[in-house]
Write a structure and sequence with these properties.
Number of strands: 0
Strand content: under 5%
Pfam families: MFS_1
Subcellular location: Membrane
Membrane topology: Multi-pass membrane protein
Helix content: over 70%
Number of helices: 19
Distance between the termini: 36 Å
CATH superfamily of the largest domain: MFS general substrate transporter like domains
GO molecular function, one term: transmembrane transporter activity
Shape: globular
Largest sheet: none
InterPro entries: MFS, MFS_dom, MFS_trans_sf
Number of domains: 2
Order of helices and strands: HHHHHHHHHHHHHHHHHHH
Oligomer: single chain
Length: 437
Amino acid sequence: MESTAAVDGRALYSKITWRLIPYIFLLYIVAYLDRVNVGFAAYDLQRDLHFSNTVYGTGAGIFFLGSVLFDLPSNLMLTRVGARMWIARIMISWGVISTCMMFMHSKESFYVLRFLLGVSEAGFFPGMIIYLTYWFPTQERARAVAKFMTATSLAGVVGGPLSSYLLKLDGVGGLAGWQWLFVSEGVPTVLLGISVLFVLKDGPANAGWLRPEERTWLEGELQRDKELSGASTHHRLLDAFRLPALWVLAGVYFVSQVGVYIVNLWMPLILQSFSHGGDRDAILIARYATFPYLAAAAMTVVVGWSSDKRKERRWHIAGCLTLSAVGFAWAAWAHALVVALCAMTLAAIGLWSMMGPFWTLATSMLSGTAAAGAVAILQMVGGVGGFAGPYMTGRLRDATQSFTGGLYLISAMALGAAGLALVARNRQTPIVNTTAQ
């Protein structure tokens, strides 16, 4: 056995972080762009294809129904065939579907392609969360997850300017701007999916860039972490369903995803409602919409660091959700573009910053197949929220000609979820350490 006495744990985690996080960060930025770029194209789609708010909200949200149906089997398949092969398969298939979005011509084709996009992307996010547990024990995980999760907010930072540029190509080559948007953001996904086969490793045991003593030390740390947290006693898929704390967290995650996708898929149109309309305003709004994502990216890292330093998860989650509730309520009250932008920034900061401590708390409870199942269950419940948020907002917008009702509703839901987060037992309570018989 290799001696591990000389291994510097802090230096090793830094090495792993720099080796893995930038690459999977890039993968998730591309994934998130393909998922939410329809929000930047919303104005043009409503203009060119005559979509109502209900049609747009349904199509934007139906992605999550496809994801919900296939998240669990996809995540279980990842544990069988390995992260490298399965993540590559996911990315290549969703890149093809995303590119095909350029051919939609009716609400039916919009619904079908968005549903298929959800099916093809199912398992990617929960798979990446599980993948991080292969490399980082609980005490290091909130920071790692937070750095990874900043991709979702920075996708908005990148997506705004990129989308505004692509929308300007309207008419070039006989294609509408929104068609250029989908093809230009779909093709790179296929290429990155191919690169996964050569870059990712299935775990420390397969990482040639780790020294033998580093692999031995890391595997020992990960095993000790499972034993301390009680995760080592929960291996089977059924264990995940039997854990009450998981269902409490599922309620929290449902609400968070309602809010996240109201921001992602409706914020451009919410901000547009304060402008004078027109193509130029739509392009400017796409640029303004980058600010909430940039602020959220910075605060996600700060909250993840704070959560790890204090070894506390629940109050961090509750505090972030309370901040998002204030932001949504402020946006409902707003009567000017600048005020609405500031309010949506608060909402975005709260929703994105909770993800580091949330996923650390969730993944500290289980291991093995149960962990894969738990993350997939949470993602499935979140997927229902991802559908409910855009759909609910579109229906209320058509019924009331205002975003106010939907924004007040999600504000109240976020406050309720903050209270629910405090109920979730932490990883050292008996509810987590009890093995289901």
